[in-house]
């Protein structure tokens, strides 16, 4: 890959990874609700899961969407339903120190890996990255795209968890936390409108 193409890929990876979307909204909410340390598995799962997704899309899944366009529609429906459910969970998340016994838990590494498969922004990013930067789907080119995204994606998305952590003190008020969670849920739902 030429240097100019690599620079363009890196810029695309940065812009698409750091801008708001389902992963970033959820990481910010997790950082605010659970703190940075408890959000680390979620952030690592996003980075690993998305990098794996790019590889799998590049080596064959993209071909399935070419052969069976209805898969795109099915994916959108499943993604929308799942993201609406997650938005509901975020909106109604209790503070982690609540005395009611009902404690929310952050997303696990494995849940975050799996989440990539129903995240419309992740699909859009992976399909676009492969189409633009590994159009022949050569394994070496696919792997390079995945590595570039892997290097750029994790710190970019983790920044959102850090922002949530920074807001944590301000969100110590139950009313502010509730308003924040509802705002994050609304932004998560709003991100769907931009992606579908």
Q: What is the oligomeric state here?
A: single chain
- Overall mean confidence score, pLDDT: 84
Alpha-carbon distance between the termini?
Answer: 31 Å
How many structural domains can be distinguished in the coordinates? 1
Number of helices: 8
How many beta-strand runs? Answer: 0
Q: What radius of gyration results from the CA coordinates? A: 17 Å
Residues in β-strands, percent:
under 5%
Structural class: mainly alpha
Q: What is the overall shape?
A: globular
Kindly summarize this structure in a few lines.
The protein is an all-alpha fold. Helix content is 79%, strand content 0%.
Task: Explain this structure.
The protein is mainly α and 196 residues long. It has one domain. It has 8 helices and no strands. It has helices at residues 3-18, 22-34, 36-67, 70-91, 109-115, 120-133, 139-167, 174-195. Helix 2 packs parallel to helix 7 (139-167) and helix 3 packs antiparallel against helix 7 (139-167). Mean pLDDT is 84; it is low at 98-102.
